[in-house]
């Protein structure tokens, strides 16, 4: 899922790699279903963005010296714990 800066990367409708919202233009106003789709997409993206902001504030990920696969597993676990703590 990406923001509106990546529109155009989702041109393959059969198997999209990147999912973006819809952009309004002067000649094309967004319909209510398009606005709702943008809202749902932004809601999902916001949770991920908040998680990354929280991780960056910890500053320890810059000091991780391990296999990338293990670091990814560790960061995913920390995101789950951080989101669990935030939503308490």
Strand content: under 5%
- Catalogue the unreliable spans: none
Global morphology: elongated
- Whole-number mean pLDDT: 79
The major sheet is characterized as: none
Helix-strand category: mainly alpha
Number of helices: 2
- Tally of discrete structural domains: 1
Question: What can be said about this structure in brief?
Answer:
With 88 residues, the protein is mainly α.
What attributes characterize this protein structure?
single chain, 88 residues, mainly alpha, 2 helices, 52% helix, elongated
Could you give the topology of this structure?
Layout: H1 32-58, H2 68-86
Can you tell me about this structure?
The chain contains two helices and no strands. The two termini are 26 Å apart. The chain has one domain. By secondary structure, it is an all-alpha fold. The longest helix has 27 residues, at 32-58. The model has no long low-confidence stretch (mean pLDDT 79).
């Amino acid at each position: 899922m990406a923001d509106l800066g990546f529109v155009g990367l989702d041109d393959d409708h059969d198997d999209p790699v990147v999912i973006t919202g819809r952009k309004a233009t002067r000649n094309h106003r967004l319909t209510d279903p398009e606005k709702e789709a943008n809202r749902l997409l932004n809601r999902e993206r916001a949770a991920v963005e908040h998680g990354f902001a929280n991780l960056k504030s910890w500053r320890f990920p810059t000091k991780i010296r391990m296999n990338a696969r293990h670091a990814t597993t560790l960061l995913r676990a920390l995101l789950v714990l951080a989101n669990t703590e935030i939503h308490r």
